[in-house]
Design a protein that fits this description.
This protein is an alpha+beta fold. It folds into 3 domains: 200 residues, Jelly Rolls (Sandwich), CATH 2.60.120.10; 55 residues, Arc Repressor Mutant, subunit A (Orthogonal Bundle); 65 residues, Orthogonal Bundle (Arc Repressor Mutant, subunit A), CATH 1.10.10.60. The protein is 46% helix and 20% strand. The protein is built from 13 helices and 12 strands. The chain has a 6-stranded antiparallel beta sheet, sandwiched between helices. Strands 5-10-7-8 form a 4-stranded antiparallel beta sheet, with no helix packed on it. One of its GO terms (molecular function) is sequence-specific DNA binding. Pfam families: HTH_18 (PF12833). It comes from Dyella psychrodurans. This is AraC family transcriptional regulator.
């Protein structure tokens, strides 16, 4: 019979432990171009796995880490030595390009397409933590409202507790024995508890609660709404994409733009309807459906409320203005092109 390990309340076969350790080590090693980096594995209740991998390469040039496979999990990246340049791209957009001091932390959510760029010698710890593992832990301790970590995604921040926990794991990473497994489990469990306590929403970072959404969150919400004008998109979906609670998204978006996401979304539909109405061959009923409204009556009611006149009246006025512009005399156009006198 294969030897077994009792890991945080779950029995894990030794062969399975080794396979998981090698799999995660190989995965993060390939991403960072480091061969066989040391990795520790902890299996919590329900056999959900969290890991920590040490990436160290003194000769690492500037490089682009490969895109990381999407899944419902977090990476907590702890910088163990100064790095000249570190950038996180979420869905192709940079969310934080800066140097990183020793002890700096970044958290990324793997549900998005994540790419990391780094310049200079590498020495960091990468903690892999499934979101469900945090959710289950929060539920067991009565924090049933916890859903996602509310933190400055991809941006560096200081956290002495995460740094200290990482330092504690270095000896086990470099010379692991099975007798150290309970210690590893305890440290990784402490990290999960700390993340829930700091980023569960009880103390949301200032970048979200005071200054509104971060630049990338606002851009992500706007882009999602623009790409779903016809079919619509829920606040819950926008919040999930921005890694923030729905109420936090609404408050932050209004603080940034002066409008709620719903008001912004309606303005996108109105603008689309105006573009469509420039085609005289389109009926107002067709314009209503193509711009995402339930029917012509709904479209007309919202349009008049927002613009002040009915769609038909707006179309007629727009046509008259266009006709006037196209019938200008040559002298009119020359006068309009002439520079203003001073």
């Amino acid at each position: 019979m294969a030897p077994r390990l009792l890991v945080d309340g779950a029995i894990l076969q030794q062969e399975a432990y080794i396979m998981l350790k090698e799999a995660f080590g190989e995965c993060f090693g390939q991403l960072s171009r480091v061969r066989n980096p040391p990795t520790l594995v902890s299996c919590a209740m329900g056999a959900q796995v969290s890991t920590v991998t040490e990436i160290q390469n003194e000769d690492a040039p500037f490089g682009l880490f490969q895109p990381i496979t999407r899944e419902d999990a977090y990476l907590v990246i702890l910088q163990m030595a100064q790095l000249r340049s570190f950038d996180v791209l979420v869905a192709g957009r940079s969310v934080g390009h800066e140097s990183m001091e020793a002890g700096a932390v970044r958290i990324v959510y793997l549900a998005d397409e994540i790419v990391v760029r780094a310049s200079g010698p590498l020495h960091l710890l990468i903690f892999y933590i499934p979101r469900r593992l945090l959710k289950d832990m929060a539920d067991r301790h009565g924090n049933t409202g916890f859903d996602v970590l509310q933190c400055p995604w991809g941006q560096s921040f200081s956290d002495p507790i995460i740094h200290g926990l990482g330092q504690c794991l270095l000896p086990a990473l470099r010379n692991f024995s099975r007798l150290q497994q309970p210690f590893v489990d305890y440290i990784l469990m402490s990290l999960r508890s700390h993340l829930i306590g700091r980023f569960s929403g009880a103390a949301v970072p200032a970048s979200v609660s005071i200054r509104g959404l971060t630049t990338w969150q606002e851009r992500r919400a706007k882009d999602l709404m623009a790409s779903h004008v016809q079919e619509g998109v829920s606040v819950a979906h926008l919040a999930q994409a921005c890694h923030i609670s729905p109420s936090g998204l609404v408050r932050g978006f209004k603080r940034n733009t002066g409008l709620t996401p719903y008001q912004w979304f309606l303005s996108l539909r109105i603008n689309l309807a105006m573009d469509l109405m420039e085609d005289d061959a389109r009926s107002l009923a067709d314009v209503a459906l193509q711009s995402g409204f339930a029917d012509q009556s709904h479209f007309s009611r919202v349009f008049k409320e927002k613009v002040g006149i009915s769609p038909g009246a707006w179309r007629s006025r727009s046509a008259r203005l266009f006709a006037a512009e196209t019938t200008d005399t040559p002298s009119d156009r020359e006068d309009q092109a002439a520079p203003l006198s001073t």
